[in-house]
Amino acid sequence: MQMGRVIGTVVSTQKEPSLRGSKFLLLQFIDEEGSPVPGYEVAADCVGAGVDEWVLVTRGSGARIAPGSEHRPIDALVVGIIDTVNLEDRLIYSKKDQYR
Q1: C-alpha dist (Å) from residue 71 to 61, 68, 75, 96, 97
Q2: How many Å from the N-terminal Cα to the C-terminal Cα in the chain?
Q3: CATH number (domain holding residue 71)
Q4: Using CA of residue 100, residue 96, residue 33, residue 74, what is the dihedral sign?
Q5: Which residues contact 23 (CB under 8 A, 6 or more apart)?
Q6: DSSP code for 19
Q7: pLDDT(100) > 70
Q8: Burial of 97 (0-12, 13-18, 19+ CB in 10 A)
Q9: What is the extent of the structural domain holding 94?
Q10: How sure is the predictor about 86, in pLDDT bands with cuts at 50, 70 and 90?
Q11: CA neighbours within 13 Å on the CB side: how many for 78?
C-alpha cells in the first residue's frame, strides 16, 4: 500500500458498465513525512474519502480482490482513510488536527 492525499475528483459519464456508481479520486502520493512524491493516480474509492484527506491506496491485484471490486477494471483503490501517522515518536499527521 501507499499513502496519498486526495487532491480532487474525477467524473466520467461514459465508462465501462461495471464501473457505474464508482467514485473516482485524484491522488497525490506522499512520503512518510507527508511530502509529495512524483506520481499521481486516479483511484476508485470504497471508503468515502474526501479532498485533502490522507488515504491508503492499494494497487494492482490488491485493488481487484477487495469485496465489490471483483471483475472491475481498476488498478487502484482507496481502502482506508488515515487518522494519524506517527514516525519515531513524532506525530506527522492527525486528521482531527487538520480540520481545526
Answers
A1: 11, 9, 12, 36, 38
A2: 28
A3: 2.40.50.220
A4: negative
A5: 9, 44, 45, 48
A6: G
A7: no
A8: exposed
A9: 2-98
A10: very high
A11: 29
Strand ranges (DSSP E) for the chain? 2-10, 23-30, 36-45, 54-59, 76-81, 84-87, 90-94
pLDDT at 96 over 80: yes
User: Is this model's pTM higher than 0.85 or not?
Assistant: yes
Q: What is the reported pLDDT for 81?
A: 97
Domain count, the chain: 1
pLDDT tens-place string over residues 43-57: 999 999 999 999 999
Nearest to 58 by CA among 70, 72, 75: 75
Cα gap 30→34, rounded to integer Å: 5
